[in-house]
Specification:
By secondary structure, this protein is an alpha+beta fold. It has helices at about 1-20, 25-35, 40-65, 145-155, 165-175, 180-190, 190-195, 205-215, 305-315, 320-330, 335-345, 365-375; strands at about 75-80, 90-100, 100-115, 140, 225, 235-240, 250-255, 260-275, 295-300. A 5-stranded antiparallel sheet has the order 4-3-2-1-5. Strands 6-7-8-9 form a 4-stranded antiparallel sheet, covered by helices on one side.
């Protein structure tokens, strides 16, 4: 083995001397000489070490690789969903924040039709174009926007706790638990045991809402991502508004840490024909429709259909889902004041150059809705 190295060295040296004519080349050749002097054993050892390191790196990448590439950008993921249940009189809006395999926060609201003469605050644009899709004598309401009145009526009916207490009880119960831990709990307990275990949550719908939370937490269809210093310390703020005309309204949820927006999740609801309704077609909820052929929809859930209409009517080349995601990505990590600076620089048509990927003419209005939520 030693003779092999000496012979190799002499040959390499001869080649170096014949090929080189300046100091810089000699220095490079000295490095090559050193490489030639390595023993076959050392080469084998290094090859083995390099393979082991490569295997470790490959394994490491596989271990942290998220199902959705966007999830690699932060340690907090907001999942939005609208779980359906047979015969429902309302539809739930669930936003679950996860960090790794743990649930670190939940925002819950439910939308339901109520009598127009009951004194409830209707969803935005109910007195305008959006309201045309609602049956006469009814209005669509957010339960959380009407929490005091709704809870008062629930207590009159015998409920010992308010709507807010039930939602907060559910959120506190799942916070810090893995999705699997919550699922196991729900599988092993009866409905009565579940209600008893969740402090402050006495509604009969508590087990169903908990199941909704785990279902949405596992759903990556509508997600937004952000980074928090301490994910378990995030707080939620929610708001409804009308950033786009009179025929729809928006629901916006923010995860915040101090005055910084960690992540934003929003969607809009509108009545449409030949679309996927927000509830099942036969549910009691649909009795609130003015026309059974025009159902209440989520624009995100009907992204393809709604985006096709955008292309037809406004020659849009970017889908509504991609627009919403671009806005959500832009506000992640910003304060309300920083977003207001961007709004101040809007173009005449309402678009904002700094919001990469967002082509909606109402981009500034969506940003303002987020600012309003952050200041709420």
């Amino acid at each position: 083995m030693k003779k092999f190295n000496i012979a190799s060295l002499m040959l390499a040296t001869a080649l170096v001397l014949s090929a080189c004519g300046n100091t810089a080349d000699n220095e490079a050749d000295k490095k090559e000489d050193t490489k030639v002097e390595e023993s076959a054993e050392n080469k084998d050892d290094k090859a083995t070490d390099n393979k082991e390191e490569a295997d470790k790196e490959e394994k490491k990448v596989e271990e942290v690789k998220p199902e959705n590439a966007e999830q690699a950008e932060g340690n907090v993921i907001l999942h939005r969903g609208y779980p359906k249940s047979e015969g429902a009189r309302s539809f739930p809006r669930i936003v679950v924040a996860t960090s790794g395999d743990k649930i670190v926060g939940v925002s819950i609201d439910e939308y339901q039709y109520a009598g127009a003469d009951k004194g409830y605050e209707a969803t935005p644009n109910s007195d305008k174009g959006f309201g045309e899709g609602t049956a006469e004598g009814k209005v669509l309401i957010s339960k959380m926007d009407n929490e005091e009145q709704y809870s008062s009526e629930m207590k009159e009916a015998g409920s010992p706790t308010s709507l807010k207490e039930t939602y907060e009880g559910i959120s506190q119960f799942v916070k810090g638990k893995t999705i699997e831990e919550v699922e196991t709990f729900l599988k092993d307990k009866s409905e009565d045991e579940i209600i008893e275990a969740v402090t402050g949550a006495t509604f009969k719908s508590t087990p169903a809402l908990l199941n909704y939370v785990t279902a949405v937490a596992r759903d990556d269809q509508f997600v937004s991502v952000g980074h928090a210093e301490n994910p378990e310390d995030i707080t939620f703020k929610a708001i409804t508004g009308a950033p786009h005309g009179e025929k729809s309204f928006a629901d916006c949820v923010l995860a915040m840490e101090g005055d910084k927006i960690i992540a934003a999740s929003f969607d809009e609801f509108q009545y449409m024909e030949d679309a996927e309704g927000i509830t099942n077609a036969e549910d009691d909820f649909t009795q609130g429709y003015a026309d059974s052929n025009k159902v209440l929809v989520s624009k995100l859930e009907n992204n393809d259909k709604y985006s096709a209409l955008m292309t037809e009517k406004a020659q849009s080349t970017v889908s509504i889902k991609d627009n919403f995601e671009a806005i959500e990505k832009f506000v992640s990590g910003k304060t309300a004041a920083e977003i207001e600076e961007a709004i101040a620089a809007k173009n005449e048509d309402g678009t904002i150059d700094s919001v990469t990927g967002a082509t909606l003419k109402d981009t500034a209005n969506y940003l303002q809705l987020i600012v309003d939520a952050a200041k709420k």
